[in-house]
Write a structure and sequence with these properties.
Blueprint: E1 5-7, H1 10-14, E2 19-21, H2 22-31, E3 39-43, E4 48-57, E5 61-71, E6 79-85, H3 89-102, E7 106-111, H4 121-142, E8 149-150, E9 154-155, H5 156-160, E10 167-171, H6 180-183, E11 192-196, H7 205-213, E12 217-219, H8 228-243
Parallel strand pairs: 1-3, 6-7, 6-11, 7-8, 7-9, 10-11, 10-12
Antiparallel strand pairs: 2-5, 3-4, 4-5
Length: 258
Amino acid sequence: MALRRFFISPEQLTDPNPSLWGDEARHLLKVLRLGVGEEVILFDNSGLEYRSRIRSVSRDKVVFDIEEKERINRESPLRISLGLPLIRSQPLEWILQKGTELGVSSFYPFYSAHSSRNFQKREQEIRMNRWQKIVQEAAKQCRRNMLPAVHPMISFIDLLEIGQEGLKIILHQEATERTMRALYAGPSFPGSVFLLVGPEGGFPPEEVNLAERKEFISLSLGPRILRSETAALALISLCQFLWGDMGAEKKGGEDAVS
């Protein structure tokens, strides 16, 4: 049986007595019912895993002995940034969770013509904290040792100004003449992709035009209308298959499909 994994901050690891406390410790003790002497894996967003043994426990604190550390890379060779619209909380959080599992490197929540939100500063902070916890939990589950970055909410206009290299894609239902099959041109490996998925109702033509001026390629995922969360995960999966680590025998600049 695989060892249970827990996220620990680098600051906690530098303590002579590395420990977890609060919700994470209570989950370990009350839900998983782990005790003194049992082994776990700790990771700290550095790419390292720490094989550790529980030394002592209290009501809401667990202290560990670090027995060995190992650098294990489970990141995709393709760096994926995803611009996701501020849609309803449940599907947005689902994208964060499943996107983390699929290997997204960075999330950029944005508001636009069809996804306008006027969040107060305090509400933004609450949401950001929750989103960080969601990607942290997803990384624990899928055995990633690096957490994807979740950036602060940003406008669609400002999102287009982010200096991203590599391939840039914006989904547009009307771009029926261009699909992922047409886009894929053989052995070219983009290294990174910046993906923009629209809210309910999609992107209006003026936003698509703005994106195309910033070197985004507009394309369609087919004749059916997909929800934002479906479109996001389908697009991520296709990119990982073509250029990442999701099933091609050759990667990193070689043919990904026959």
